[in-house]
Amino acid sequence: MFSKVKTLSRAKSVRRKGEPDDKPPGSGTVLLVGELAQVAEVRDACGTVSAAKVEACKVDELAGKLAAATYDVVVFDAARDGELSTIVRGSSKNAKEKMFVIMYGSECAGSAKKRLQAYEDGVNMVTASPQAVAEVMASVIGRSRAGPFTCPHCEAEGFFEDDLVDHMLLFHFNASSEDEVACPICLKGKFQKGSAHRSKNNVFVHVKNEHGKVSRGEEPAESRAPTPVWPFALVVVKNAAGQFLLVQEYASSGYWLPAGKVNPGEDIQDAAQRITKEQTGMSIEITGILRASYTPQDQIARMRVVYLAKPTDESQPLKTIPDYNSLGAVWAATADLPDLKLRGSEPRDWFPYVTKGGTVYPLDVMKSESAPV
């Protein structure tokens, strides 16, 4: 069922000139508590980690075991044996949080309330996957022991750079603390040890994006810069006769939909009405959304919302005086399109779609994030 899980390779751990080579990963101790020691899938998972020395204990022996010895990983099943995390943390000989505590079982892993409480009580991982248990065991036991770095959270020592980045995220990413600490690797700055915000002042954000694999170009850094988004409104305007509004574009580029860029601070639906008035002379009532799209490009992203609309008054005269916005506007039937020069395919795409009764989405599917549900 399980393949051998190798302890993590130290080949890519970062060493500074003059430092000794890392020692091979030594053995580590794993404690299975209570009934969990009799669960075949868990025993099999532990057996795939060759460097692990696995011990078992009864629940009433747990406090004494932890007081007398140091363990790298402790695994228990709250559904079978009760909530043991406070006993594990309170009785442990291990300094601070150097021990990795796993709550195992589908009942806990599948309960939002129990997962949240488990982490509040000091559990490091909640899982029902024996393979996940094996992978974490291999990582915890197989990390470097002869490196120069110390974890700022639990003061575990002997890390090389990659190991420390992995350790901090695996063990302490749920830490909540605004205490400040210098980066343990580059010794720069003052970072919050457990800020809930993924800002440049968060020590986890710093080590993840400035050190380890990212610093060597093996993984991309998480971009903290805002992504420039260019929002556009396009409008399909249909009259009672079944005709559609076309804008005559500049530079002999032909006809297109009323369309344009949304101004900073402008609501996109307001922009659709403004753009249609500027380009066609027509005031409109927007009745629905045909499509909302977000298209990432190299350095920017383009967002387009295609609205369906109708004239507020069909007797309004169309624009005929050329200006910066357009040369004018005209009503046209879908059947007219093959004989017309079009700037883009959108009239050919949307006019038949609307004529055939294609799906139109309500306007309230797209609102400001502050709008009530």
From TrEMBL:
Family matches, as InterPro entries: Di19_Zn-bd, NUDIX_hydrolase-like_dom_sf, NUDIX_hydrolase_dom, Nudix_hydrolase_domain
Domain Nudix hydrolase, first and last residues per copy: 227-356
GO molecular function term, any single one: bis(5'-nucleosyl)-tetraphosphatase (asymmetrical) activity
Positions of region (Disordered): 1-27
Origin: domain of life: Eukaryota
Keywords of this entry: Hydrolase
Gene Ontology biological-process annotations: AMP biosynthetic process; ATP biosynthetic process
Official protein name in the record: 8-oxo-dGDP phosphatase NUDT18
